[in-house]
## 1
Amino acid sequence: MTNTKIAEEVQERLAVITEADILVGIPSYNNAGTIGHVVRAVQAGLAKYFPEKKSVLINSDGGSTDGTVEAVHKASIEDFHSIFVTHNKRDFLKISIPYHGIPGKGSAFRTIFEIAKRLSVKACAVVDADLRSITPEWIDLLLRPVIELNYDYVAPYYLRHKYDGTITNSFIYPVTRALYGKRIRQPIGGDFAFSGDLASFFLEKDVWDTDVAKYGIDIWMTTTAVANHFRVCQSFLGAKIHDAKDPATDLSGMLYQVIGSTFDLMEIYHDVWKNIKGSEPVSTFGFRYAVGLEPVIVNYEKMIEKFRLGAKELSSIWKNFMPGDLHDFIHNELSSVPAQSFNIPDDVWAEIVYYFALAYHGKKINREHLLKSLTPLYIGRVASFVIDTWNSSAAEVEEKIENLCISFENKKDLLIKHWEGKTDLKGEK
């Protein structure tokens, strides 16, 4: 079952621990500046909300060179009385272990899953190492639905700046909601909880030498849980504030692997999603409140320039699988309108995404080239969203995202019709 190499001294510690009730995993790579805070928040959360449970923290590190592992070892709460009026202190077990395999978050998760299974834990949570907004309450909100209400999977529900999380808002949430019928707002949020049974189920899947081991692990976990009928819910965690990432350096590779994983999952679970119509809410726990958010700086004019350059260079690829009217709209109309009037409507964006999924399914174009050619279209859609929501409140933005999701649900018949080969991909009989 397991091919992960776990150091001998770690195996010895696990043998001494024998079993545990709760495991919290923190995958990391060069997060020395933030991981100490995350460890202390986890420790405080476990002490406050689960004092009678035997808990273990696992840091699964990808070879950090900035002192991340040392920061984990040093991080601790010495004076609990400064945090809690009363508490029942129980030993806090903490292990840092390097993971092996393909570099990426998924490989780190695999190590966490394997240790969870080895210790026969009842509930497991995973949180990002770069979080600056995590509080002890997150641990309660993530784990309690598993421990007390027998949920198998708890997704996070954050409030984020309207221009943060654009891959989620413009692609992952609308697509997964339309496909699988569950309104899980943050399918790739990064901070999750799951039952020990689901962790073992994840381990048995043959994905650990694929792109899932890089950026695709979050959407893979969410989809796998939903498609296999595990009990799923979400918990409101407040604001998600984390280390800023440069879209110019991170976007293309992350987009390629997250969307590639989403399309691969469509192949695996076609028999599940083809019969689902509409969507329904999932149980949501936690007290919803307004939060202050850090601004996200965007330059929509530069984004439109990138879109137009891509449209000029990649039009010949898109022409292979897009209907003529859709291709002409992208290549001609959007290339000439003033920046302030640039707009990719919701239904058009849904069609674009579905035609990419169909082209991926049909294997008529090299899949890597296909997925990478989506990047300028995605940037164009984000620019359109920025222009449309420039003066919108958070509530108004959420309403626009809801309308986008409905467009994806309404266009799903197009996807099903072409997927099953009832018409040619470009609409010809």
## 2
Amino acid sequence: MVNKFLHKEIAQQAGFSLATVDRALHGRANVSTRTIQRVKLALEELVEQEGQLAVRGQRMFVDIVVEAPKRFSDEVRSAVQYILPRFSSAIIRPRYHFFEEATAEKIVKTLKNISARGSQGIILKVQNIPEVRNEITRLTKLKLPVVTVFTDCPGTERLAYAGLNNENAGRTAAYLFAQRFQGQTGTVLTTTSHLQFQGEDARAKGFAHEMNRLCPNLDLIDASGGAGLALSTASKITDALQGINNFLGVYSMGGGNAAILMALKAKSLVPELFVAHDLDRENRQLLRQGHVHYILHHELQSNLDCAFQHIASFYKSKVPTKFESIVDVQIITIHNCPRA
């Protein structure tokens, strides 16, 4: 591997010893494929951070652990790259741990490895399951701050949650459906990637409660569990469509919307209303093409900036500057959809 960085910088970024990095860089024996891949990723991260490496000030390694489809993780990474040159509280050195799907064992192992190698904070977007909640408790006892983003693990000792008011987002989606279908009968398809993502679960509960109040004659059919990935999401949708009557629309809380539309098309179904979440590349295109009608959006940049602020403030004795952790949803249409 050709590189222009000191071995010490690479070792810090990868979370390995100098000896391990030296073996990986020079192709020596007894180095696992996983280690080699992590060192390569560390070099990519260092290239992204190159402008910050020469800056003096307090340096903090922050590990960002995200379980989400690649299209969403790419948006997270872009948001971090935008924030960091403008971040004034400290010099943040991010390390990424992205998974499209991850077992509880894999997430816990990742968090244990992070704490063993050393970190100043963890930003976490994973499922709200007992194994993760126990690990957050362990990390907190080690004085390692954990901030959840986009989806929470409430009731744990995490430092803070930074993200969307998800229950209110679900209620907002119900309001949009009520404007179109109030007083009618028919079926609305709902889908999440995993209900174990607390944020999506809160959206689903908020939507169902408000729909029962505003549109009691509409049936809600759930097709959750596809992890937001194309093939598994399409399969869940196809199964849910069996015997469906008077199909009206879709509220997609977990993504995979191109796959949802393809599954609907295969059944000759066209939604009168399609409400989705997040302004990733796929959703922007679907919105401009008229296949998705509304996108419920929250700025990842603001959420991540808030998460970094919480971690930086954790290491200061003074009371942290006030910043908004929980934000409300924005409604995006074809008319106010940003180009990038």
## 3
Amino acid sequence: MFWQRCLLPLLFIILIPFNASAERIKDIASVAGVRDNILVGYGLIVGLDGTGDQTSQTPFTVQSFKNMLQQYGIVLPAGVTPQLKNVAAVAIHADLPPFSKPGQKIDITVSSLGNSKSLRGGSLLMAPLKGVDGKIYAIAQGNLIVGGFGISGSDGSKVTVNVPSVGRIPSGATIEREVPNPFADMNKIVLNLNRGDFTTANRVVQAINNELGPDSAHALDSVSIQVLTPPTTTQKVEFVSFLENLKVSPDSAPARIVINSRTGTIVITDDVRVKRAAVAHGNLVVSVTADPIVSQPGGSFNRGTTAVVGRDRIDIEQQDSRMFLFRPGISLRELVDAVNRVGAAPGDLVAMLEALKTSGSLTAELIVI
């Protein structure tokens, strides 16, 4: 298996067991329909210090620049291509929070679309931000803040810190259109759990019904809980505020072992159990070493040719194998202690867990991401 061939060190993370504490509903669920909306736009960054797009390779930057000039009555002669060393074409994106009103400000992120080396010191000119429906919901403009920078030498050497081709503009967009939200017209609200779980959904229903009376809340499935609401908007806001601050003890996560095959990270949840099993694990190391020698024909009148002759040396090393017994129902802490006592590395632990899962001795879901 590829676990045995993995040469990278593995990071083993243990989730220490603890008693489930009560959490607010607002921390484990959200109100259906109350969500952010994604906005995207296109614009030009000006005022760069010679780090803009190379116009020969980014014709769309030149086209955008000409279109902008035409809006102000400036028409360039035909066949003239301006050298825009201080201009860069950028993509703009932002999240529009729920219930945002015209005139409010939101933060935006600006990313280079062409081959601009750095956006540091640039300013974004007025650019519309559109939603998925194609309508304009905000107008962006402002001075860019770039956390990275790059320095290049005449010999081709270059030093780059962070990413100089991406920046942010705090409060860089003004909202122009409100997104319709059905919250005011709802006679029922639906709470969606961040992680679907039937036990947690049932506990949320019980907590709400204990406070508001029977049949106030109903579970639609393992994720959604439907709750009756008051008639007026003011009462609904107060009602949702009350629901958000109710405390519920979520159920523990399912018994899972998650292995990241790229980073070697292993995460084991608290409910993992091992049935009675005996495990022996050892490694056979085979090393092949090339030790070439030079063959020189004897005698000065010998017509032989000097040649390199290969000579390989093969070494086989059998590492000590250790065998240990897992008793039935062993817990996570006992599993880790047993593995640590025999000195097994995280890589060995992966092989053991995979073998235990195949044999049916591991009562957990083994997930490789």
